[in-house]
Amino acid sequence: MDMSSLPKRVRKDFPILQREVHGKPLVYLDNAASAQKPLAVIEGQREYLSNYHANIHRGAHHLAQLATEAYEGGRRKIAEHIGAPHTEGIIFTSGSTDAINLVAQAWGRTNLQSGDTVLVTQMEHHANIVPWQMVCAERGAQVVPAAVLEDGTLDLDDFKRLLELHQPKMAAFVHASNTLGTINPVADLCTLAKAAGATTLVDGSQALPHLAIDVQAIGCDFYVATGHKAYGPTGIGFLYGKQAQLEAMPPWRGGGEMIKSVSFDGTTFNGLPHKFEAGTPHISGGIALGIAIDWINGIGTPAIAAHEQALVQHAHAALGTLKGLRIIGTAPHKVGVVSLVVDGLHPYDLGTLLDGQGIAVRTGHHCTEPLMQHLGLESGTLRISFAAYTTREEIDRTVIALDRAMQMLS
Ligand SMILES: Cc1ncc(COP(=O)(O)O)c(C=O)c1O
Predict the structure, then answer these.
(1) What does the pLDDT look like over 121-168, one tens digit per residue?
(2) Pick the CATH number of 5-30+301-409 from 2.60.40.10, 3.40.190.80, 3.90.1150.10, 3.30.70.2750
(3) From the alpha carbon of 176, which atom of ligand 1 is closest?
(4) Ligand 1 center–CA 296 separation, angstroms
(5) Is a pLDDT exceeding 80 seen at residue 3?
(6) Which of 24, 209, 213, 342 is the Cys-Cys partner for 230 at CB 3.0 to 4.6 Å?
(7) Which residue in 381, 287, 296, 385 sits closest to 338, CA to CA?
(8) Is pLDDT of 97 > 70?
(9) Does ligand 1 lie within 6 Å of residue 206's CB atom?
(10) What tens digit of pLDDT does each residue of 268-299 get?
């Protein structure tokens, strides 16, 4: 497919892209925070809520069966999409944060002992740092970060050095950085970590919307992602886990759905995936995440990835013409995320002026404060991030607006 034709083909699917903001056509470049929703996702949720809403799994009636089938269909689509060998290895969660907390609590409390190490990287989102810090504090273990190089790539030598030094029980790292765009060589990292005896978790929050994912080829024990960055609803995401790992883990949250039988003499737990899904879940979310995955597959991840690669190159070249502007994160392999800083100007002031032009960007530390500290960027960055519907013209408009904003503020 002609890459530039992709937005032409898909923009009509997104009702919100028709709107104006502050009297200007919306340019939505905050996709790494949350992507917009295609009509199929919006309609899929409406259809469920209007026509077949019921609680799932335990109802004998027709609507409960329809709802259960649609929700479990969402799970099957996720499993197929990421190459999971078993549908039962997909646990629905409220997002990546929830999925990592699940592993940190259920796996961590069982497997981490005093003196143990969890290896992460300096480019992790807080969601892949804080849950580990919490369980490590409880267990007397420590969280150690592998360094990030100047261009935003992971320092592989440091990663290897820390593996050797600490023999970590867990190595948890991001597939694609939400701040730098860097795509990490996750299969290689898993091979290295495994050879050192570590269990592995990959945070795929920024990979699911942009890249083809094959958890078996990656070789990780756990993989997490969140729906709302991948054209799905908020409040839904998933944990993939190898069956043996999930089987060996105790449940985390207790309640309905996750039990086989309950009595005051003792309770027995349900099998996978229900053991980790206590209570009534986000039913419309699970259904709609399946629809979002169908939407992604209707286009194909190779076409999306190629389109976004071209946009990143275009953005780097166009932004490179602005004096005093520095791109943060120039790794050779990036998803559609471009962070930048301008000498002497606060990212928030620039972002506010862009908003006045209808251009939605994100400013700040992007929930990666340790990375910002490491890079000496205490005010954070201004980040533009792309989706399948992003056009070159939108990037050009943003570069012109940035240029103007820089002149106004200097
Ligand atoms: C790399 C990464 N990990 C984890 C998260 C957390 O996702 P959620 O807030 O949907 O749980 C995000 C969201 O910004 C992210 O970009």
Answers:
(1) 999 999 999 999 999 999 999 999 999 999 999 999 999 999 999 999
(2) 3.90.1150.10
(3) 1
(4) 19
(5) no
(6) 209
(7) 385
(8) yes
(9) yes
(10) 999 999 999 999 999 999 999 999 999 999 99
Give CA–CA dist 67/284, Å, rounded. Answer: 9
Helix (H, G, I), strand (E, B) or coil at 191: helix
Give the tokens for residue 141. Answer: 């273990």
- Cβ 125 under 6 angstroms from ligand 1: yes
Active site residue 367: yes
Q: Is the pLDDT of residue 191 over 90?
A: yes
Q: Indicate the top mutation candidate among 367, 369, 383 to test ligand 1's pocket, ranked by most ligand atoms within 8 A of CB.
A: 367
Only one residue has tokens 């027995």, namely: 268
pLDDT tens-digit series, residues 326-341: 999 999 999 999 999 9
Separation of alpha carbons 394 and 274, rounded Å: 44
Query: 5-30+301-409 and 43-297 share one CATH topology?
Result: no
Question: CA–CA distance from 390 to each of 5, 75, 194, 329, 398 (Å)?
Answer: 11, 28, 38, 20, 12
Give the residue whose CA is nearest to atom 9 of ligand 1: 97
Q: Is the CB of 95 under 6 A from ligand 1?
A: yes
pLDDT score recorded for residue 4? 64
Ligand 1 atom nearest residue 98's Cα: 11
pLDDT at 32: 98
43-297 fold? Aspartate Aminotransferase; domain 2 (3.40.640)
Phi, psi dihedrals of residue 170, rounded to the nearest 5°: -135, 135
Distance 125 CA to ligand 1 centre (A): 7
Give the residue extent of every domain in the chain. 5-30+301-409, 43-297
Ligand 1 center to 128 CA (angstroms): 9
**Please, what is the average pLDDT of the chain?**
97
* 172 CB near ligand 1 (under 6 Å): no
* pLDDT for res 383: 98
Q: What is the pLDDT of residue 96?
A: 98
Mutate to test the pocket of ligand 1, among 120, 177, 226, 368 (most ligand atoms within 8 A of CB): 226
- Spatial neighbors of 255 by CB under 8 A, at least 6 apart, are 278, 279
